[in-house]
Amino acid sequence: ATSSLSQARQTANKAGMKANVSTLTVAALLYFDANNSYSGFCDDADSFESFKSRLSADDQKNYVCNDSATQWAVSIPFGSSTYFCIDNAVQQPIETSSALKDQTVCQ
How far is CA 106 from CA 5, 48, 75, 103, in A? Predict the structure, then answer.
């Protein structure tokens, strides 16, 4: 029973993190509409306020966001070996085994 409860919590936490990361798609579109570019999106406090408010203190330090005029991407760790990544080309976060470095696409 403890194992099932642990798995249920992990599944719920994963769904919550994916939902939170997904909010960045709308924020990015609004930013692009206002600025005609994604450049500066990652530094925009208004775009990230809601997203960051749902993160733990460690996650707030460990997410990576990169932007350019035409693209953006965000990755955030989940657990010890998984990352969620979302960019302007994907609709839902994808799971990856590594964080973004300086790229603006998830794959």
Answer: 32, 19, 8, 8
Q: What is the pLDDT of residues 14-72, one digit of tens each?
A: 777 777 788 889 999 999 999 999 999 999 998 888 888 888 777 777 889 999 999 99
Contact present, 41 and 72 (Cβ < 8 Å): yes
What are the CA-CA distances from residue 31 to residues 14, 36, 50 (Å)? 26, 8, 14
Structure confidence at residue 1 as a pLDDT band (50, 70, 90): low
What is this structure's pTM?
Answer: 0.83
Decide: 20 and 51 in contact? Cβ < 8 Å: yes
Residue 85 CA to residue 105 CA, distance in Å, equals 9
- Identify whether the C-beta of residue 106 lies closer than 8 Å to the C-beta of residue 94: yes
Nearest to 70 by CA among 102, 101, 28, 98: 28
